UniProtKB/TrEMBL annotation:
<protein>
    <recommendedName>
        <fullName>DUF3558 domain-containing protein</fullName>
    </recommendedName>
</protein>
Length: 338
């Protein structure tokens, strides 16, 4: 069974982090802290997820300090995903957004891959390799205007630096023997995307200060065009967006924009978050009603009231995102379930 060391050495990873002045820091293995549950799901699907960092570890992914000087590169391999492969498309500069199939191709080790750079996507190389969907993403504080990690490099130059890593990954996967691309998987049971059943409504309405609420269910459709949607669909993850009649005095209280993401059978992802560099630095919190072995992390913006709480409950994982009281919403979900 392949490990991250089998698909890429540090010598393969390091060129992707070379700065405009030629500085080549030594990367270390670390998982980039993320505020989206989907970013942690690949291993549960029987896939391989690898990640490396240079610069200081990110401890608050919703913070945007002006002196950020970090970069991460991740490699995610999902067996059986090649037939669904359809990467993001981005525009002609590093500040564009991805939203559909790409026609920007690069041939690496004889494999045609899509590439691009954008705020949402980072700089990516994406390809079907064998029967797997392979996604390689380089991320940093792209929004920072002055002194960002890759300042002075064009998107094409950054993508060129990522090619040694991609070539190593593609070659390793292509040359793998039967059994080397089989990884542990979580036994995922198919569930109906029923928000009221999954998270309740009365407790969350109370936490939000409204009389009642409804949910709009967001499940990734088939015919997917991005890696994250494909992973969510494979894992059965769905999002419940809160819809409520909001009194005028509560319009700014965070009811609109509140969502709960449900990942049945994915509690182990939260265990990983609290035990793996660098995600173990995420702020942990204690939730009322949680029992021994259940964990929760909270991430908050440093410029708005927006917060995200990701927590385990029984065998499942949940993500609450809101500018209201995310802790109270999470505790309402626990009370409903227990």
């Amino acid at each position: 069974m392949y490990t991250c060391d089998d698909i890429a050495t540090l010598d393969d990873v390091a060129p992707g982090f070379v700065t405009a002045d030629g500085t080549a820091p030594t990367p270390v293995a670390a998982i980039q802290p993320a505020f989206n549950l989907i970013d942690y799901v690949v291993p549960a699907l029987g896939g391989l997820s690898c990640s490396w960092r240079v610069g200081p570890a990110v401890t608050e992914p919703l913070h945007d300090p002006v002196d950020s000087d970090w970069a991460y590169v991740s490699v995610k391999v999902v067996a059986g995903g090649a037939d669904s492969w359809a990467p993001f498309t981005v525009g002609d500069d590093a500040l564009s957004f991805g939203d559909g199939p790409s026609d920007t191709a690069m041939t690496i080790g004889g494999i045609d891959a899509a590439t691009g750079c954008g705020y949402d996507t980072g700089c990516f190389i994406s390809a079907p390799v064998g029967d797997a969907w392979v996604e390689i993403v380089l991320s940093t504080n792209w929004i920072q205007r002055d002194g960002w990690y890759f300042s002075g490099l064009t998107p094409d130059a950054i993508l060129a630096q990522m090619q040694p890593l991609a070539a190593s990954v593609f070659t390793a996967l292509t040359d793998a023997q039967p059994g080397q691309l089989v990884w542990p998987t979580v036994d995922l049971v198919e569930h109906e995307s029923d928000c009221t059943r999954a998270v309740g409504s009365e407790g969350i309405a109370t936490a939000l200060g409204v009389d009642s609420l409804e949910y709009e269910v967001r499940s990734p459709p088939n015919g997917l065009t991005c890696f994250e949607n494909y992973v969510a669909q494979r894992a059965g993850v769905f999002q419940c967006d809160v819809d409520a009649d909001v009194p005028a005095d509560l319009i700014g209280a965070g009811v609109w924009g509140t969502s709960v993401t449900v990942g049945y059978d994915l509690a182990g992802l939260v265990d990983t978050m609290v035990s793996t560099p660098d995600t173990q630095a995420l702020p942990t919190i204690a939730l009322k009603g949680a029992v021994e072995g259940e964990h929760a992390v909270q991430m908050c913006s440093d410029v708005t009231p927006f917060c995200v709480v990701i927590f385990s409950l029984g065998q499942s994982a949940y993500q609450v995102a809101s500018t209201s009281d995310t802790v109270a919403i999470a505790e309402a979900i626990i009370a409903h379930t227990r």
